[in-house]
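Exercise 7.
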Amino acid sequence: MNFKVLFVLLLTVLSVAVVPGLKGDAPVMKVDQTTGEVWRGRFDAQGRQHGYCTRHDRDGNLIQEDEFQHGTCVFRRRFDTAGNLTLELREGEDYHLVQIFPQD
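Solution. The predicted structure, written as tokens, is:
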């Protein structure tokens, strides 16, 4: 068999089998026209938030960062305009968000 035919056959098989498997959910960016805030994140196949999401103000300062697992928030941090951490929530043992910072 000709090596060119084998190469084309192998390339075809890899493009059909491997390339779709590497495809992930495309990142989404939304801009609030009134406040100028920019939200970046991803959604799963059912349209639920999934993965790491961020929100920045008009000047590019980080306001909030979240992590979602198929629509359920498992982590959240909020920052003030100076960049100081004001709130941190993490998923606890009972699968509810527990306030980590500030501690009361």
